[in-house]
User: What shape does this take?
Amino acid sequence: MKKLILPILLACILTSCNGWIIQPLPGPTPFLPSTPTPSIFTPTPVVIGVTSMPATPTTTVVISTDTETPIPAATLTSPPSGPSISITVLGCNTSIDVTHSMGEVTNAFVTLKNNGGVELTNLKVTLFALDEGREHADKTMELVALPVGNQVTVKLTVDSTYKQESAIQVEMTSDQGTFPREGLASCTDIGLFAPNPDALNTPIPNVP
Assistant: This one.
């Protein structure tokens, strides 16, 4: 029995020995080159049948700052309800009055316009001159009536100084009252624009 155990132990010892008395240190791990991590490309998936949301349209509101200019209403001026007269001296000329045994006389052509609201009756129009001499027969002209909206032109004459310009004034009275005088420092020579004698002392509609 002892002879059998001994050979078994010897066999175990021999099998466990690698031939080295001093065990060598373990060598370094063999170097293996690193393998790069392969890149993985994931393509963007294309989704069929899905459309992008449309952009919300922007509405631009234009506010006009122009304001309509109001058209002013026409102002109607009504004529005065009472008596009113317009006196205009159109001009003058001179002449020699042999009929009344006078020398040079001044003739003034005057237009009267009834701008009031009543008819003027029994009108008396008189011419005055600063250098007046004797009273002339045609110094004053009388008219029966001047209707509303009518005018009349008269010729008035005064005795004046020979070849001297003189200041004149025209006065008018009627049954409706006495009106302010119209005067000129020097009467303008009317020349060829003297009214037609046949048109004098006759009322006609007012001429603007």
